[in-house]
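@channel anyone free to eyeball this complex?
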Amino acid sequence: MDLILKARNLTKYYQMGEVRVEALKDVSFDIFPGEFIVVLGPSGSGKSTLLNLIGGMDVASSGEIYYRDKPLHNAPEKVLTGYRRDAVGFVFQFYNLMPNLTAYENVMLAVEIAKKPLPAVEMLEQVGLADRADHFPAQLSGGEQQRVAIARAVAKNPEILLCDEPTGALDSSTGIQVLKVLKDFNRHYKKTVIIITHNAAIAQIADRIFYLKDGRLDRIVNVTNPVSPEEVSW
Amino acid sequence: MLIRKLLRDIAENKMAYLACVIVIIIGLMTYTAMQMARDNLFIARDQFYEEFHLADGFARVKAIPFTQVEKLQEIPGIDLVQGRLVQDVRVINLDQDKNIYLRLISLADHRPYQLNGVKLLQGSFPGDYERGILPADKFFTAHRLSLGSTISVIIEGKKIDLKITGTGQSPEYVYAIRDMGNIFPDPQTFEVAYIPYGVMESLFNYKGMVNDITFTLKPGYKFEDVEQELKTELEKYGLESLVARKDQASNAMLAEELKGLAKTSTSVPILFLSIAAIILYIMLKRLVESQRGQIGTLMAFGYRPVEILRHYLAYGLLVGLAGGILGGLLGTALSIYMTRMYQDFFSLPDLAGRFSLKYFLAGIFLAVGFSLAAAFQGAKSILTLRPVEALRPPVPVFSKKSWLEIIPGFRAIFTVPGRMAIRNMVRNKGRSFFTFIGIIFTFSTMASIWSMYSMMDIMVLDQFTKVQKYDLKIAFNRPLPLNEVVRELQNNGGIKRVEPLLEAPVTLKNRHLSVEVMALGLMPDAELYTPVDTHGKQIQIPGEGMLLSEQVARKLNAKAGDELRLESIWAKESPVYVHVVAIIPQYLGTNVYMNQEALLKLLQQGQVATAALIAMDKEKIPALKVKYSTSKYISTLEERQQIIDLYNNLMGSSKQMLWIMVLLAAFAGFAIVYNSSIITLSERKRELASLRVLGMRPGEVLEVIAVEQWFIGMLGILAGIPLAYAINKGIASSMSSDLYSLPAITTPPALLLALLGTMLAIWLAQRWVARKVASLDLVDVLKERE
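replying in thread with the prediction:
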């Protein structure tokens, strides 16, 4: 099977004054289409840096990363923007909705720039918010906001859904709802989902778990029998 | 969807955007109004001049036979010459309280091509030998006359009745002033009227003669090309004046006005658009900063920086369009009003308010251009922002104590919120700077406008309270024996003092520079006409030599000690030489001054006077006027109080305009302070809400913002003081003309008023912000993620 993402010896360091902080060291992995991956690690392990590199938000200091054979590590910003626009859907820990657009309008914001978008109303239905479409973010609960954010990310019909601590700001039952939506998307559309989290409990629903530690990919574990989101508890 | 975001963003801060739009509207309104008014004036003038053939040159002589006038056509360069009679007469049957003069101009008999032709506005031309008269329309209206009624005038000491057959207007008297000594037209007391040559010839006893010549030039010739030959030719007929079209009073005033209008119609709008641009720039910069997270999100899911930039530019576009369109429409309305105002001053029959699509569109372009440029400056940082950086909150600014706090004792002045304000101010240097600029603008504009107020008062009051102190001035038709005149006048009741005055038209030359001016011969002990220096102190008239007014000195590039060449039609021998004793200020009119004896000696004239200045009991003035109103020796009776009233009246409308300018300046100041405060407020919402939670009252919290604005405000005011002085100097020199000069004065009351006005603008802006502070929802604000 074709790889959707391939990384070789990814390294990223930040120069903070005179100190050089190595956020990511020598990370290599392959990800296949339709996989559900959880990247697990404590804070400071390099999770966010990895997410930024995978998402085309930042470029590596050294090493290589490919999306379907297209290099991202040396791509100019223009190419990265195109990649983000067409291939990636982002879900953030703090939802990042436009405060003065309604739920529906937030989804439409993504639909408008996508090549093969999915219907916005349908996406809101899928996350169970069809009746809240006209509400502004401030009128929605955290879980609802995160589901709007997922609908927004999914509506672009991306190849990869990248989620940064999607349940981090939510209580467990709302979190489970959100995970369910992500899992459904993965199953239903056969799209790759990558979740980055420090919450080990979530890892049980993944096909594979990447363990990050001190900026290194410590190990990769294949989950033979992923559990359904409803069975997760934390 | 971004459009909706835009509209809602704007709606959230509508006051701030509204302020910006209003400032643009003001700028655009002045732009379109002035440009359109200027065009209207230009079109009306050119059309009228063209259609009714304004002459290229004007000459006045004592008398010249018609046959000789035609001969002038032989001078190379002269195209067409026409002679006519021109004579000022007193009108006695209209308003008894006023001295009313009409300039009678003879109507040519059926010439096919009439120079300075008369456009018939009402009624009909009088018959060739009919004692009919065609006054200017403004005179007709000002005195509520009707066709067929009679105007009685004094000609050669006799009362003559003239029947009004109609009204007319010629391009020669679009701006009808008696001479260059009058700045404003007053149709109540002076206008022109047309009368058949045949009638005028017999009334004034000019058999086959004329006293005024107008001519046009052949293409390719300039006035200077024919001036010398014409002068020589006319001197034997008693040449009194010879002026080119550009120096002709009415045309010169009109040209001056158009020039001024052209200047202000670009500078004032640019000023306001710049202020609007500054506001917009601050607002967008702040918007982009505060929406960093949103920008990052948009970038994360693939919006291109250019698309995001375009979104933020749309704020500018929208503001620019709104301001441009509204400003253009209001400007058109204002231009119609302005044009109507010009109709009061300039009698241009074709003058009408017109809508001009050109300026309307140009205005919108200008507004949108300025707004987009400002928006781009404010938002361009997006282009270089990387998505990861955008998503990360901005790096906290390394906050240290501000440099101001190094000053010993500085800390003690401010409370803790005050210190927060000062640090914020120093940190946001860019924004503080713009607020500073805005305050400077507001303050200096107010200060200079209020100074202009005093300038105008001083111009008039100094002249009429310190210099011209007579109650009544009687000008004679011809020079009269000095002693007899004084004696005659002194015998009237109520007379306190009579001083003879000699007014002689002279041409002064300094090397290649020359100027035509009225020389005043004053008595050494004159009390009724006393030139003063810049400090208002009376100047002693020297026994020998001449005092030049500043304008004359400037034109001749002369200084004290220089020797000038003097020519005069009155001099028995010309030229003679006279030396300059001193240069003195003169705000109204331009003259040179000499001792009366010395001037008479220079001109080799006997003991004569051309006018008498009289101080007398006010109640006795009417009686005196009645007594002399029919005298054939007297050309005009001028009451000082009437002139003062006229000036005050006319300046009233100018002063209204000044008030409007003050309000606009105050609004611009308000808009800048308000916007800058709102930005600080939204930036520091969390901080301020925390202070509220700590138990501070809204007023104390407001202090964090207010201290910053007041501090910058005070600095701006201080910096505005020297600027106000500079502006006033500029105004004084740019508004001064040959006819008058404005003193460059910045008065303490003007500075004080400007200070109060600026403070009021800041205070009002703070009041608006205070309401926002009071309505901060603490729970909401603190819940929000940073």
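from a first look: Chain B touches chain A at residues 1-2, 4-5, 8-9, 12, 293-294, 296-305, 307, 386-388, 391, 785 (CB under 8 Å).
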